[in-house]
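Supplementary Methods, section 5.1.

A reviewer requested that the exact input to the structure prediction be made available. We therefore reproduce it here, unchanged from the version used in the analyses.
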Amino acid sequence: MIKNKKKEKGVLSIIIVASKIIAGLFLVLWLYHFPLQRIMAEIKYNEYSKLQGVVADDIATKKVYKDYKQGGYYVTVTYHSDSKYYYDYHYYLINFRRDGVKYHTMSCITHNLKNPLADSYDDVKYKSLE
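The structure derived from this sequence is encoded token-by-token as follows.
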């Protein structure tokens, strides 16, 4: 009878420890997947925009949101000096491309606010770095 109680306590303590480990892993994965990647996307946007020559005062709007379909984050920005366009910056922590796997990458796509079917984007102020 005493042995059974010791076994029950041992099994119960193992279950408690295992559940705490699993809960801790989920917390770490959640922190990695959402807040940390968002911070990394914003840091990468700051680096990318400096290479484009963007001045922080020129930013009219900036929205950062998770891309659940393709992975990564979008940073959508409009600029005071280039109000005809909005810029979608797409951040990937890991990007599987035809030319190989790239890490911590960002790309920029420009969209015309007034004419979404425009063919020419020659007059954009901040060109894509690709």
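Helices lie at 2-52. These observations are discussed further in the main text.
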